């Protein structure tokens, strides 16, 4: 089974988005478009992917595979098994525990056969009361097939007394707490929903006479679809040939709390989030950093590839020349399979090499997007000093990550987050660099378009990973002993 | 069988290096080091790779595989079959014709059993009189197993009357015309040779008590070896435990003619060639371009990834801001397998997306490393204009490529090279851009460290692909009807 | 995905058993014993197999694979994932419709997590009211994961109000109509059940301090277990470390109706059914045939391999010499994969060849076990005549197969059964042989040990495929329009 | 890579034929016919197979694979790469040493490109002076690619001064000592040769307007070809569209010495060898055995499957009933892959089971084809006694195997052959059976059609494995210290 490869060379020390969702209705061979969309969303989940399509003659068809979209959903022999004008898909990253061949059952979309017909569903986000719901459902005779929190939604739908699938989905989602952007389908309808806070993104596009739903706009571009609008927080859209796009508001109103880390790292730089270019926001974070934390230096280097836009902004604002001080090996998209002991120990050198001729003797500003455990920051520092750098200054394009995410991002336990245990000064000493500075939370909000910075008490974004301010109480985790900030 | 993926998103329209070679002696599990070295040389050949090792108990062992080094030569089960303190390896790209599973016989290193023992050999370059030699050898009873030009060397060695393998190799190489950097091994010796003109690179490194030979210095870095020196043009080194590095000069002296395209595109930016940083040379080409071909514009964008250093240089010299106008999908390291028709037609969009928010309304300078057929330059232009660019100016970090290479680079036939049929002005019209400029041959030489530019009549580099000035007559090709410049 | 190969060279024209079940408790590495047992039961299902084991540390583990047991469940890497002292398994053949990679979900054992813990279940037989049950369960909110009739049992168990899994299983099975021999397990118990009529076999064996349940005794032999007794029709046994074998009678009493075709073809000749050797019963059928339908001839030939015992009996009783007139290619255990058109057309010749030297000029009696569609009987006749046989006499070791089975055997639709459309005489003409005779139903019963033949009105066996006398009304099929004999 | 499975359940204790050869000319898609022929010859070699075809447009094409013919050469995608009206093929078994993936180079047919064009060659037999020839060829500059003795022939052909390939082949074969049946091809000719003694079989068949060469007649039957005649010992046939079948006699005349073990075990029972049915010869050996070594008993059982014809003959002659006392598992065509330790220890039980009900209390005659090491005879005896047999009498359908074969059969070293160390009486004691008798050498000759038995001094067959009378001195082995009978 193919091992899954993250985009970032130090991916062991990055937060990971857990999912991307996609759906298309009203075009021939819809599954092919979904495959393309999922390919463009691959950065949101590399472990596995799945597609379900519907066609009247053969009914619902599905294929779920471990590995990259490009290695599975491009084979004509597979795609021919997914006919029809309506299809949805999902890419997923998951925690190590449930990885492996037996977990193909955990790969979405999930499917349920109800008395009024079948429905398939793909979910990006995380349900924070999933364990309580699961216990309740099992007590009443539901049989779970996966270890996924998302499967609850299907079982809740199965037990609803409503007569249509969209109504059953509303019933089910009202029981669910947490973050969710969902793409679902019946035999005739494509459905999109975002939770009341709109934590995860979901956008609507137009492709010919049909429609597409996608986690990000970059996946509309790839199929030649035009971006129409974002699905609103708390909105459900039901799209069909007959009625076009119908909009519903099944939930109580709440203030939007979009995930600010989508701007910092998760989303692709060529996507548009909330009307803003992700690239431009990241470049602007570099500008803010250069203002907040200037330094005398000879060279600004990005940590490839995610630090690049902020490094360009920092260089531009500071006037310090920009250069590629760290070169990435193009052939490490996929991690080494069954690596020998010797190769595992090579670690960073397999992925990166320092451009010695450029670095030697220089005072270097290294721009990275975040510090999670801090392990790789340390290795990079060593490589740079070995190559003869005179000084090393870290500039981080996000505030210190001190709290875990419970809304669909794979974060280490709180104790493993460097910033949960150390002050900025302690981190500088720990990493042994000449200086270490993070952009401020206000600086980050300004870069993301909030000229006045963060509104205290009523922040415009979910920034729980930086602030510990969780907009939805993580019920299952609290039951297991997690302490909220107020409770510490 | 895995399809092979080039690094560059428009690889169909790039010249391709055909090989990388590597060897290690004097360290335990030498094959593991060779695997790492080949991984670092993967950009020089992605189709297949092979390693041969020697150990007294099991003799010579070999493994040859299609696909990436990281996907094959990292499995403990395979590497255990390659024991010993001495090993060599090869990565290869080849033309479409001989691709496929049956051509595993074409994958190097090649091996021959002679009366005094066995020898293995890996070759980077091209033998221009291989077909004549092959006919002669077959007439005398040699049986060829591959379609590779390099196999001639083994057969010439088998027929030599010399008593040692290094002497037989000298005998054989004196019959051979063309470009070659060779790494070979006997049961006790590691051997490196460069042809008299030194067209292809080969460097020597020290690793612990042992030695390494490599096409490029970046592959010394990955194993922690220190760079000692380049193997000289026309030099043969024979390295053994007892005698260290012995140097021989088996060929008539000739002036060095190192391939200047190694600086422009083939070698990795973090390698050192002829004492110069490849990254710095490329950045300097951008500086030269900005001087030779200035333009009023708002943004300098590299065509990712190979145009990046020159774009940085151009931006720095011109003062025009640098930005990522084209975003590359990180998950297209490997080409789509068995792509459906629809996906094949997507072409560029699978690999690149335009950063619309950055491009829209701007006058854009696009910096690319070369123009071969021109097909992808055209697609990129279209994407940029579709995204709303006000003007598009191409700046190319090499002179027009008008002649095929016969020294180990896969080039299209002469007629397919855009620059062989059109002037710079015609190319500009053909591509439909606002301006198109190539760096001059003198500018390129200056960037590569020759302050006085190209010395006419006695150029410091092989630049046949730009100038048509072939330092070794391509005998087999001339027999097949190829016309030299003088003969046109 | 490997295509699965039946044992019989003309398997397209044979009835097929759909399942074998096996379970072991009380021995270390129980899954290894289950693998061996399933290997010995491979003739009962070749498409796929699955094993579930339980161990306190890792909980329930499962592996389900397409293909032969020997090709999957013999790999140390897989078997190590199935630890524990308790395991059950299943081999399965299925109809073409649900074949293919997506149907791995249809491979048993099935697993359900209940509030009191998990249970796994493997089923041999067929539930005749499965579709009605399925509709009812879906109406109440159950989500089905497979297209298998057996999944109903798990959902019925999930909805039971009983507090223990054995009690829930009793609840569930009382709702189920049809034929079932079930092996199931909880965390601590191995459970075996046979339906009230005992249509499918299930036997109990002792292995060291532990116990085994198996469809046939031959699969006790392979692990060195001793045969203890058959599970009785309508009996449920619950086996645990603490309480040994406990016996329950959850169903209303009914007269036993064991499947007589198990004697004729399905079971292995070295198994013991109802106290009788299958080999001996088959040999005795040949004796009965020789008495009922004597013929003057020179040679008795079995149609390999299933006709062999009856041919030996026929030869012995008639005094006509026995010989191998048809030679089977040993290497057709597995069907040709992706066969070219030409090879598909070769059909029989890939599998069998006539022993011309033996056949030529002789009057040949061909003994086969059954005639289903008659297609292969015809091909064999042609081969025999082409080889120069003087006469061809078919003797069939079962009565005419005129009715489909609804109790776990894959039969063609009624119209495709040759004997449903033709009299014995018409079949003889259709096949173009010199004579064709089937053993009588009474002769078959005598050979199976019923000295007085079949008891009319109260037959000792289920012989519905010959008589149309169905002991349980096939509810789902009747709803779809199937006509019982009385209704014709 | 798939492990290869022999047909016989105790194959570790059997002599193994090392090859089968096949060729077809003059029919469209010749490679498909070759694949069918090789499938029918699979019993002669299960490790690997290869096919070479020729077509004017694409030239020579070849495919060589480990594993069964049916698993490789039935895929349309592969067979399409082997176009043309002329093709040859080879199946092979080889000794353990050179097994594994790297030895694909040892898989025939071998191919050589000569100045007058290419030729491919497949060889059944063994060259007894191959090592001396190999040393000589290497000294003169030949490069060997395999460890196969057969490759010498190609190199000898390459060095011949003759102008045509058939003449070069004659030149080469005159240098070669040992046993060979060869099928070869040029661009226009199919060539067949047998060594002067005719040790291995080779037959000619007619298929439509074309011709086939095959090791055995059973492989003519499978493609619907008619048997024309055997290639004579010492004959070379050259078959072409223009000239039909031309016959040559390149070697000195010698008396024929066909391998008598082909009758005993290697060839398929449905083949015709030297005008005699193999089945009939084997049955007749059983008759001879019953006459030479009668015994009072209740049951004659074959050891499946190769002992069956002799058991039928023994039963017929002795009047003792024939029965299937040992049942073979149909699903052990392929050996267990990566078997767990536990499964490896199961040994015989995976493959065979005793039919207890038949055996219990009976005096049993077990008929087997040969005794090699005696290891499995012992295990079978134990199974039979465990099942309650009253007496066990072994009757062996060949004389004691006391000498290794050097003519293309894989035999253990002399010391490992039970009969080289023990008398018949000692073997009986060693095996612990009630009686053990082998057919006499004269009895074997009589059964094979030589009414007068073996002609001393001038035997009609090669029977070296029984008699130690080697018709060609095994030169390489003698050099390594092997002692002939006279020298003992």
Automatic annotation (TrEMBL), chains A, B, C, D:
Principal EC category: transferase
Cofactor(s) this protein cannot do without: Mg(2+); [4Fe-4S] cluster
Alphabetical keyword list: 4Fe-4S, Glutamine amidotransferase, Glycosyltransferase, Iron, Iron-sulfur, Magnesium, Metal-binding, Purine biosynthesis, Transferase
The Glutamine amidotransferase type-2 domain, residue ranges: 19-242
Highest taxon listed in the record's lineage: Bacteria
Pathway linked to the protein: Purine metabolism; IMP biosynthesis via de novo pathway; N(1)-(5-phospho-D-ribosyl)glycinamide from 5-phospho-alpha-D-ribose 1-diphosphate: step 1/2
Binding-site residues, Mg(2+): 306, 368-369
Cofactor note: Binds 1 Mg(2+) ion per subunit.
Catalyses which reaction(s): 5-phospho-beta-D-ribosylamine + L-glutamate + diphosphate = 5-phospho-alpha-D-ribose 1-diphosphate + L-glutamine + H2O
EC number(s) on file: 2.4.2.14
InterPro entries in UniProt: GATase_2_dom (IPR017932), Ntn_hydrolases_N (IPR029055), PRTase-like (IPR029057), PRTase_dom (IPR000836), PurF (IPR005854), PurF_N (IPR035584)
Annotated active site: 19
PROSITE patterns, A to Z: GATASE_TYPE_2
UniProt similarity note: In the C-terminal section; belongs to the purine/pyrimidine phosphoribosyltransferase family.
Record-linked PANTHER family: AMIDOPHOSPHORIBOSYLTRANSFERASE
Stated name of the protein: Amidophosphoribosyltransferase
Organism listed in the record: Rhodovulum iodosum
Protein's gene: purF
């Amino acid at each position: 089974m193919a091992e899954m490869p993250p985009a970032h060379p130090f991916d062991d020390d990055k937060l990971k988005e857990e999912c991307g969702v996609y759906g298309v209705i009203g075009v021939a061979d819809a599954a092919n478009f979904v495959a393309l969309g999922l390919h463009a969303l691959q950065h949101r989940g590399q472990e596995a992917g799945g597609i379900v399509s519907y066609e009247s003659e053969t009914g619902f068809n599905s294929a779920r595979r471990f590995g990259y979209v490009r290695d599975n959903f491009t084979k004509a022999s597979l795609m021919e098994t997914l006919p029809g004008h309506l299809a949805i898909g999902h890419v997923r990253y998951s925690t190590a525990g449930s990885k492996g061949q037996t977990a193909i059952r955990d790969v979405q979309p999930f499917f349920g056969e109800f008395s009024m017909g079948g429905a398939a569903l793909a979910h990006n986000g995380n349900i924070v009361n999933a364990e309580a719901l699961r216990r309740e459902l099992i007590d009443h005779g539901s049989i779970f097939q996966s270890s996924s929190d998302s499967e609850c939604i299907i079982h809740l739908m199965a037990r609803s007394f409503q007569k249509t699938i969209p109504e059953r989905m509303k019933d089910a989602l009202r029981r669910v707490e947490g973050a969710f952007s969902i793409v679902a389908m019946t035999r005739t309808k494509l459905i999109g929903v975002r939770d009341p806070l709109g934590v995860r993104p979901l956008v609507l596009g137009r492709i010919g006479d049909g429609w597409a739903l996608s986690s990000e706009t970059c996946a509309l571009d790839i199929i030649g679809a035009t971006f129409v609008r974002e699905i609103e927080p708390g909105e459900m859209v039901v799209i069909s040939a007959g009625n076009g796009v119908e909009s519903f508001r099944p939930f109580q109103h709440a203030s939007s709390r979009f995930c600010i880390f989508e701007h910092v790292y998760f989303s692709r730089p060529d996507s548009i989030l909330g009307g803003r270019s992700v690239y431009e926001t990241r470049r602007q974070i570099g500008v803010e950093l250069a203002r907040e934390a200037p330094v005398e230096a000879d060279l600004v280097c990005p940590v490839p590839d995610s630090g690049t836009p902020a490094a360009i902004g920092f260089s531009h604002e500071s006037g310090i020349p920009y250069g590629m001080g760290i070169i990435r090996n193009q052939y490490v998209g996929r991690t080494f399979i069954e690596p020998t002991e010797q190769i595992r120990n090579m670690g960073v050198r397999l992925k990166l090499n320092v451009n010695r001729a450029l670095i030697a003797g220089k005072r270097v500003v290294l721009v990275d997007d975040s510090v999670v455990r801090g392990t790789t920051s340390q290795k990079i520092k060593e490589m740079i000093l070995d190559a003869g750098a005179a000084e090393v200054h870290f500039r981080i394009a996000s505030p210190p990550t001190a709290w875990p995410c419970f809304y669909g991002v794979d974060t280490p336990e709180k104790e493993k987050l460097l910033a949960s245990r150390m002050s900025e000064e302690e981190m500088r000493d720990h990493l042994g660099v000449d200086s270490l500075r993070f952009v401020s939370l206000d600086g980050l909000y300004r870069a993301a378009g909030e000229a006045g910075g963060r509104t205290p008490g009523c922040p415009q974004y979910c920034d729980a990973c930086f602030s510990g301010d969780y907009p939805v109480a993580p019920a299952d985790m609290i039951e297991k002993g997690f302490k909220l900030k107020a409770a510490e």
